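> example.struct
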C-alpha cells in the first residue's frame, strides 16, 4: 500500500468557489508560475505518484462558500486519478486545510478524532505553561491535525495528518521583535507537539499501528532556537528517553548527522540568494509498522534518481509546489 504526504503550496488559489479549476494564464500564488502551469504540474505529479492515499497539506479551503472535498474531487476527475475521494477533519480559518485524497476502491477511511482526560481533541484548547510563570497558557492548533481510522491492504491503521505552526517571525519590524516572535512561536509549536505526542502515547499503549505524516515546519538542527529549547518538535513526536519511539529514516539521518548532507523535502526561492532547502515533511510510523521494513522515498527532483532522470516529472515537481512528496510503501497484510 502506498501512502504519501504532499504540501501543495496554495492549492486553494487554483479553484473557484464552485470547486472548479481556474486553468488559465493568470498568476498562481507560486512565484512566476501561472495557474495553468501549476495545475498541469500537479496533475502530472499525482498521476506519477499513483498512491492509494495522499495526505494533502495546504489543501483547498473549506468555508461557507468553498469546499475542499468538492475541489479535490474536481481535480481528481480532471486528471483521471484513482484517488477520487477526499476526507476533511476540522476546517480551519487559514485557507489551508489538511485533507486525505484516497482510492475508495482500495481503502476505507473515517474521520475519528479522539480525546481523554489529559489531552483534548485537536480542535479544542490544551493548557500548558509556556513561559514558566506557573500559569497555564491556552494552546490551540491553527490547523487541527486530521485523525483518521483507515482500513485497507496493510490492515487497520490510525493516520494523523499534521501541519505544525511555522516558527518564522512574520510581522516583525526589528531584530529584537523577530527574536521575541521566533521564541514565542517555538514555545507554541513545542506545546502543540507535546499534545500530539500525548495522542501518540495513547495509540502506542493500545498497540495501534500508527502513522503521523505531514509538514512540521521543523526538524533536527534546523535553527538556532533548538539549542535554547534542547530539542526540535520532531524529536518530541518521535519520542524521547524511554518512551516508545516512532520512526522516520530521514529524521533519523538528520539526527545522526548534525553536519554534512541531509535529506530535504522543500526548496524555497529567495530573491537574489541561493535556494534554501530543508527537511520539513515526515512520515513517522509506529514500531509494529517499522518491523515490516517499509520503504520511504522523498520525490526530490534533483536527489531522487528516477525523478531526476524523468525530465518531465522533474519539471512538474519544480512547478507544482515548494515542497516535494514523501512516499511510504507498506507491505500488504499477510504478504
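> example.seq
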Amino acid at each position: 500500500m502506498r501512502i504519501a504526504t504532499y504540501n501543495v503550496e496554495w492549492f486553494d488559489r487554483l479553484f473557484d468557489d464552485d470547486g472548479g479549476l481556474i486553468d488559465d494564464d493568470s498568476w498562481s500564488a507560486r512565484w512566476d508560475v501561472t495557474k495553468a502551469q501549476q495545475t498541469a504540474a500537479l496533475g502530472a505529479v499525482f498521476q506519477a505518484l499513483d498512491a492509494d492515499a495522499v495526505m494533502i497539506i495546504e489543501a483547498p479551503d473549506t468555508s461557507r462558500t468553498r469546499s475542499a472535498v468538492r475541489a479535490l474531487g474536481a481535480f481528481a476527475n480532471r486528471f483521471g486519478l484513482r484517488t477520487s475521494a477526499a476526507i476533511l477533519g476540522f476546517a480551519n480559518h487559514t485557507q489551508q486545510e489538511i485533507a486525505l485524497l484516497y482510492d475508495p476502491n482500495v481503502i476505507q477511511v473515517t474521520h475519528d478524532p479522539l480525546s481523554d482526560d489529559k489531552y483534548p481533541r485537536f480542535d479544542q484548547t490544551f493548557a500548558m505553561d509556556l513561559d514558566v510563570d506557573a500559569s497555564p497558557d491556552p494552546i490551540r492548533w491553527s490547523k487541527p491535525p486530521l485523525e483518521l481510522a483507515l482500513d485497507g491492504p496493510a490492515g487497520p491503521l490510525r493516520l494523523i495528518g499534521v501541519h505544525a505552526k511555522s516558527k518564522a517571525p512574520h510581522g516583525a519590524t526589528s531584530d529584537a521583535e523577530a527574536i521575541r516572535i521566533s521564541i514565542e512561536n517555538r514555545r507554541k509549536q513545542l506545546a502543540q507537539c507535546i499534545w500530539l505526542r500525548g495522542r501518540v502515547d495513547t495509540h502506542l499503549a493500545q498497540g495501534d499501528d500508527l502513522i503521523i505524516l505531514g509538514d512540521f515546519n521543523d526538524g533536527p538542527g534546523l535553527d538556532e532556537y533548538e539549542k535554547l529549547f534542547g530539542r526540535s518538535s520532531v524529536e518530541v513526536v518521535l519520542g524521547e528517553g524511554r518512551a516508545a519511539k516512532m520512526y522516520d529514516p530521514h529524521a533519523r539521518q538528520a539526527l545522526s548527522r548534525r553536519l554534512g548532507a541531509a535529506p530535504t523535502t522543500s526548496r524555497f526561492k529567495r530573491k537574489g540568494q541561493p535556494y534554501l532547502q530543508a527537511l520539513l515533511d515526515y512520515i513517522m510510523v509506529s514500531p509494529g509498522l517499522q518491523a515490516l521494513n517499509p520503504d520511504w522515498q522523498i520525490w526530490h527532483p534533483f536527489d531522487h534518481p528516477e525523478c531526476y532522470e524523468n525530465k518531465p516529472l522533474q519539471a512538474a515537481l519544480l512547478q507544482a509546489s515548494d515542497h516535494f512528496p514523501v512516499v511510504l510503501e507498506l507491505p500488504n497484510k499477510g504478504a
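> remarks
The domain at 2-329 is CATH 3.60.10.10 (Deoxyribonuclease I; Chain A).
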